[in-house]
Amino acid sequence: MRDILLIGVGGFLGAITRYIVSISIGQRWGAGFPMGTFVINITGCLFIGFLMPLLTERFLLSPQWRLFLVIGFLGAYTTFSTFAYETNALIEDREWLFAGLNASLSVLLGLSALKIGETLSKLI
User: Fold this and answer.
1) What is the DSSP string of 98-121?
2) Rounded-to-integer distance, Cα 27 and Cα 2, Å
3) Residue 49 lies in a domain
4) Quick check: is 11 in a domain?
5) The domain containing residue 28 runs over which residues?
6) What is the domain count for the chain?
7) DSSP 8-class letter at 62
């Protein structure tokens, strides 16, 4: 139960941070390019790339920090960071085919699923 609470609090803070960052960037840069989402995705990748080695290799902190910061906060801030981290893990393990499939299929099927969802919503 404690782990779920840590993830929930981290997620709450990550979602709020995502909203504030996205709104702030949108107000500054306009809506022509999804700059808010872009910045969130890139900074999420930066944060997960920075935190995971520190939490799991360098400082060996309590696993609860990973639950709170990575799964909770970054999970709500952006799921793109998790996608990038897992694809990188496949690359480091020399799982080239799986890394390529994960990257290409995630984008292609994600966009396809989005279009299918949009189409289905218009049928209701």
Assistant:
1) HHHHHHHHHHHHHHHHHHHHHHHH
2) 38
3) yes
4) yes
5) 2-78
6) 1
7) -
Q: Which amino acid is at 27?
A: Q
Nearest to 72 by CA among 58, 55, 88: 55
Q: What is the dihedral of CA 6, 8, 13, 110, to 10 degrees?
A: 120
Residue 90 lies in a domain: no
Domain-embedded: residue 30: yes
Closest-CA residue to 69 (of 27, 21, 10):
10
Q: What is the pTM of this model?
A: 0.76
pLDDT in tens, the chain (124 residues): 999 999 999 999 999 999 999 899 989 988 777 788 888 988 888 888 888 888 888 887 888 999 999 999 999 998 787 789 889 999 999 999 999 998 999 899 888 987 888 888 878 6
